[in-house]
Amino acid sequence: MTDGQILLTGGAGYIGSHVAVALAEQGLTPVILDNFTNAKPSVIGRLEQITGGPVTCEEADILDRAALDDVFTRYPIRAVIHLAALKAVGESVERPLDYFQTNISGLIGLMQAMTKANVFQLVFSSSATVYGEAQIVPTPETAPLRHTSPYAYTKIACEQILEQAGAADSRWAIGRLRYFNPVGAHPSGLIGEDPNQRPNNLMPLIAKVAAGEMTEIQVFGDDYPTPDGTGVRDYIHVSDLAEGHVKSLTALDATGTSHLGSVDNQDSHLI
Ligand code: NAD
């Protein structure tokens, strides 16, 4: 790995905080940028406890272009892992414009700031939601993309922006990671999934019921072809997923070219 720091947008969030740990484990220095819309500032102190050193965090909005330029000026950033986004599928149906603005405009502003700063390595957090109702399971990355929500649309649009920007300027080296259903937490128990808003994912809902913070959980569907008729899903441990982001960065360093990757639940690897 080469010198320089890694800008980690959304680094105080669920996946981002685990990516911060994975980067530190590889001797890489993250600079977290987060507006704490769905994370707590106390995460930073907890990351310092886990990594045993100071963790840099800039409180800023991904849409604040001046703040982005400022960060690139003040730190020797050499690559970016971009996780900052709105991610609740149901909410995206109610507030599509907010999702388009944060997720799509956020990426464009970030890439413009990166271009200005001469930084062209980017790992982008996409999602398996880009496949819609997958027709082929297991789903290959060549499967057609279909959006079934404004959130999914933003991920497809962002991937297209990345492709076209990369085609227009060969300096870009971009890793697009499509993943789904991360669960679990760092073994220290200091970080984990602790959203500010009502959780939308299954595991934090179960945890809230177990902790007595909520009374019940609703199970949707009873006629799937499974032993009890309810849905069955695969999950990936969030630390494996975090390691996948670092491997994507390593691959960009090694090859200097873009890649599309899946991080599946068998092991942390890039396909
Ligand atoms: P999260 O909400 O815990 O993390 C996102 C972080 O981004 C939060 O800390 C939030 O405060 C920050 N953020 C949001 N809007 C921002 C803005 N305008 N400016 C700066 N920071 C902002 O979510 P997560 O589960 O850690 O997801 C991280 C990324 O992974 C997202 O891009 C999401 O779409 C993607 N993803 C998540 C899942 C999943 O199931 N959790 C699956 C596939 C992809």
Termini separation: 20 Å
Radius of gyration: 18 Å
The class by helix and strand makeup works out as: alpha/beta
How does the overall form come out from the CA principal axes?
globular
Element pattern in H and E? EHEHEHEHHEHEEHEHE
In the predicted model, the low-confidence regions spanning at least 5 consecutive residues are 264-271
Q: How many DSSP-defined strands? A: 9
What portion of the residues fall into strands of 2 or more residues? 5-15%
Count of helical stretches: 8
| Cross-sheet strand order for the largest sheet | 3-2-1-4-5-6-9
Largest sheet: 7 strands, parallel
Provide an overview of this structure:
The strands form two sheets. A seven-stranded parallel beta sheet has the order 3-2-1-4-5-6-9, sandwiched between helices. By secondary structure, it is α/β, with parallel strands linked by helices. The longest helix has 21 residues, at 96-116. The two termini are 20 Å apart. 39% of the residues lie in helices and 14% in strands. Helix 1 crosses helix 8 (238-255). The chain is globular and about 55 Å long. Mean pLDDT is 92; it is low at 264-271. It binds nicotinamide-adenine-dinucleotide. Nicotinamide-adenine-dinucleotide is lined by residues 10, 12-16, 34-39, 61-63, 83-87, 102, 106, 125, 127, 179-182, 201.
